[in-house]
Amino acid sequence: RVTGPALLNVYPIINTMIWGGIGGIVGALYTLWWHISREQDFDRNYLMWYMVQPLMGLVLGGIIFLIMAGGFLIINVNLTDDTASTGARLLPYLAAVLAGFRQNFIYEQFDRLIALFTPAEKRESGNG
């Protein structure tokens, strides 16, 4: 069981995940509106995509929190301190909402980052 001061450490990641899920919901609804009303090219084959977006936004919110808390995006502010500015405390939530809303962009950035650390695949020569 998590109680007392340890519970205060859990709230930020849960809140960031919730905001990522909200971004996923808004992104799915926006895309649904775009394809039904604007472009009128809605395809029922993508229904699962619309349902999964909020869950993926939730996961991305957690990843965003871990990236920011891990120091990859450095913020020189103690976010648990009462004197921290509101903007600094809300920055992880904003990043999570944006990541949930535009998930494909975030996935592309992850792919680019992973490509930096993995060796290029050997390509076969086209001698024919």
Can you walk me through this structure?
The protein has 128 residues and is mainly α. Helices cover 69% and strands 0% of the residues. The chain has 4 helices and no strands. It has helices at residues 5-38, 47-69, 86-101, 103-117. Helix 2 packs antiparallel against helix 3 (86-101). It is globular. The mean pLDDT is 83.
Task: Spell out the key features of this protein.
single chain, 128 residues, mainly alpha, 0% strand, globular
The arrangement of helices and strands along the chain is HHHH
Alpha-beta content class: mainly alpha
The number of helical runs is 4
Fraction in beta strands = under 5%
Poorly predicted residue ranges: none
Largest sheet: none
Rg? 19 Å
